What we know:
Keywords: Signal. This is GlyGly-CTERM sorting domain-containing protein. Residues 1-27 form the signal peptide. It is a single chain. This protein is of the alpha+beta class. It contains three helices and 13 strands, in the order H-E-E-E-H-E-E-E-E-E-E-E-E-E-E-H. Strands 4, 7, 8, 9, 11, 12 and 13 form a seven-stranded antiparallel beta sheet that branches. Strand 7 and strand 8 form a beta hairpin.
Amino acid sequence: xxxxxxxxxxxxxxxxxxxxxxxxxxxxxxxxxxxxxxxxxxxxxxxxxxxxxxxxxxxxxxxxxxxxxxxxxxxxxxxxxxxxxxxxxxxxxxxxxxxxxxxxxxxxxxxxxxxxxxxxxxxxxxxxxxxxxxxxxxxxxxxxxxxxxxxxxxxxxxxxxxxxxxxxxxxxxxxxxxxxxxxxxxxxxxxxxxxxxxxxxxxxxxxxxxxxxxxxxxxxxxxxxxxxxxxxxxxxxxxxxxxxxx
Length: 246
């Protein structure tokens, strides 16, 4: 399967910083900051909603409660599928091997020419998947490999260090029907991401131990030294006098 250019995410991040397009999401388990891209450009949620031109309100993240692993099953829909997905991680300031930032890119395809959709991103531990983000509405165009969607996530609070699995669900924006999904069982790139939120990622600071040696000679040190030097000088003068012969 075709891999994206290695500089792609760096270019998109620079564009997003310039545009200032980001959002903060309060999920069930914690808080995350989200950025979205498509066609190598930042996604503006307002512009995306206007482009969709629908009076229907997109579901909020609270509409997607946690799902136990037993309830998650491979979803097959002949008209829609997620062709491939990619992940990357970054930002580990305490050097413990767990990262606070991750990116998910996925290429969704359909037999139709143009379909408005939205995605829900989940993070899963051993027992369940928790929804992290509901994306803006975006369009997929047949089997076009250039319409992949990117969600960059910075975990702010509420996510303990763990090897999380990522799950992506794709919904029809007109009907809110689940039309495709993928997770670590379908794609190894979505499995075992070592992640934690910023509140668990305290930068490591090496402590320096400073030893201070103090010496105290006492109040009589100088007078005693002066007396000793005077005594030595007197003894030398006595020794240098010529002997007296009686």
